[in-house]
UniProtKB/TrEMBL annotation:
Family the entry assigns: Belongs to the universal ribosomal protein uL24 family.
Example of a GO biological process term: translation
Species this protein is from: Oopsacas minuta
Superkingdom of origin: Eukaryota
InterPro entries: Rib_uL2_dom2, Ribosomal_uL24_euk/arc, Ribosomal_uL24_KOW, Translation_prot_SH3-like_sf
Protein name as annotated: Ribosomal protein L26
Region (Disordered): 1-24, 122-146
GO molecular function: RNA binding; structural constituent of ribosome
Keywords from the named record: Ribonucleoprotein, Ribosomal protein
């Protein structure tokens, strides 16, 4: 199958290089996490870039269910992980270390609201509503024309 977008590549090598070599402001967007069902209904958006002080629940991986309603204490963009306050492990020398978790393995249960985030949510939800108004042709619309 040919690539329909002239500027985009389908090469695995190039896509991996673009992903792992991406800059911090692009990684922020890629390190998004889905919202909980309640937040999804409230804000009419599906996912948000994760940030410090958001509350999350781990839903996949070895730490699944262990940290419900935990706060994000750090977003480590260089390593593609977030650190959560309730998930730590003991190292051999006795020090407790934070365990890195990929943002796709958590859901956001409570957002830290700032003015910037309110604007982002407003923009994303209004775009989604505008898309619904534009709408796709349904089976019902096709039946009405005949």
């Amino acid at each position: 199958m040919t690539n329909k977008r002239s500027k985009a590549t389908t090469s695995r090598r190039k896509c991996r290089k673009a992903h792992f070599g991406s800059s911090s402001h692009i990684r922020r967007k890629m390190m998004s996490a889905p919202l909980s069902k309640e937040l999804r209904q409230k804000h009419s958006i599906r996912a948000m870039p994760i940030r410090k002080d958001d509350e999350v629940t781990v839903v996949r991986g070895t730490n699944k269910g262990g940290a419900q309603g935990s706060k994000v204490i750090a977003v480590y963009r260089k390593r593609w992980v977030i650190h959560i306050d309730k998930i730590q492990r003991d190292r051999a020398n006795g020090i407790t270390a934070k365990v890195g978790i990929h943002p796709s393995n958590v859901i956001i249960t409570k957002l830290k609201m700032t003015e910037d985030r309110k604007r982002i949510i407003e923009r994303k939800s209004s775009a989604k509503k505008a898309g619904k108004e534009k709408g796709k042709i349904s089976q019902k619309d096709v039946m009405d024309t005949s």
